[in-house]
Amino acid sequence: EAGEHESYMRKEILEQPTTAQAVLRGRLDERFGTAHLGGLDMDARDLRAVRRVKILGCGSAYYVGQMGAALIEELARIPADAEAASEFRYRDPVIEPDTLYVAVSQSGETIDTLLAVQEVRRKGGRCVGLVNVVGSAIARECDGGIYLHAGPEVAVASTKALTNMFLGFALLALQLGRVRDLSIADGKRLVAGLERLPGQIEEVLASEADLVDVAKELAEARSLFFIGRVRGFPVAREGAQKFKEISYRHAEAYQTSELKHGPLALIDPEVPTVALVPSDELTERNIGALHEIDARQGPLVVITHEEVDLGEIGARRIVVPRNEPELDPILLTIPLQLLAYHAAQHLGHDIDKPRNLAKSVTVE
Ligand code: BG6
Asked: Where does it live in the cell (predicted)?
């Protein structure tokens, strides 16, 4: 029962401060600035032998996989990328013994992800899982893994499981980093950041009421863009995915830097853009792109940090708290969940069971 909540999706969004704690519990080591992931079944030597990381998942799990790849590359300095598990086996992929494959799945039953894991293992690769449902097919098929402890997720649109996937990747990146060159100071900085996150997620959720009008405006658009750069781009992809899944509006994610190479032609007063503009080394460049949109009267919603000054740009500002830059993507994701939710609510859609979609796709 969704209980006093109008929907499971909203209930699951609001549970995140608690469920985020559950995935971190017992896994952080403040003294050595690292994480302990016993379920991975890899010792320090195994972890040091990893030369590349390939992440496999579908839908939101694929997009959070891209966030995870960025974390691993930044913290552990290991080349990492994510690929749609649904495409992987069809290109007869080369499986390398020193690549760590990571399958990501809430249900643990998505057939495309399961078949990708089997492809890796059949060719002699090592595959670990980031899975929510204990004892599920993917969890059983993997060599080891990290359970997400988000509790049952009912709404088709993933929220709390996705957040825990991100945190699972942060733990993995931290542990991989600390057996390599990540300094203890950086390790401690990230452990402290992870410990602060559940409270900051709560802060973002507390500002839900401020977002409802913005969501209603976005719901009226037939088509909209979600844009971000580098760490922010997978966040934009996830935001667009969530929005289209439950509001049935055309929502397209783009790298902010690519706007001028094509989609700027579509910007006009009818086409809103949701832009991710964290306070980081790319803030000024991001603001440059906002000027281009503003000059064409494109309505703007900007998810940003307090200190970012948008100057003359006409935009709706949604401010989230700052954490460590590597961990900020998850705080930028939370308002996008709420925007999608309130847009769909405004349109009167069945939020938990959007048309044409299933919670887990278990047949090819
Ligand atoms: C899709 C769902 O079919 O499967 C998405 O509609 C979900 O919401 C994706 O992200 C992957 O599911 P899972 O269970 O493998 O994480």
From this structure: Cytoplasm
Cα–Cα distance, 46 to 283 (Å, whole number): 38
Q: pTM, whole model, 2 decimals?
A: 0.97
Question: Angle of helix 16-24 relative to helix 160-178, nearest 10 degrees?
Answer: 30
ipTM over 0.90: yes
Is the Cβ atom of 115 under 6 angstroms away from ligand 1? no
Tell me if 56 CB under 6 Å of ligand 1: no
175 in contact with ligand 1, CB cutoff 6 A: no
Nearest-atom number in ligand 1 for the CA of 138 is: 15
The DSSP-derived string for 221-271 is -SEEEEEE-TTHHHHHHHHHHHHHHHH--EEEEEEGGGGGGTGGGG-STTS
**Element holding 115 (H helix, E strand):** helix 111-122
Along the 364 residues of the chain, how does pLDDT read in single tens digits?
555 668 999 999 999 999 999 999 999 999 999 999 999 999 999 999 999 999 999 999 999 999 999 999 999 999 999 999 999 999 999 999 999 999 999 999 999 999 999 999 999 999 999 999 999 999 999 999 999 999 999 998 999 999 999 999 999 999 999 999 999 999 999 999 999 999 999 999 999 999 999 999 999 999 999 999 999 999 999 999 999 999 999 999 999 999 989 888 899 999 999 999 999 999 999 999 999 999 999 999 999 999 999 999 999 999 999 999 999 999 999 999 999 999 999 999 999 988 888 888 888 8
Atom 8, ligand 1: which residue's CA is nearest? Answer: 157
Ramachandran sector of residue 72 (left: φ over 0; alpha: ψ -120 to 50; beta: rest): alpha
Residue with tokens 């080349």, as numbered in its chain: 79
Which atom of ligand 1 has the smallest separation from the CA of 113? 15
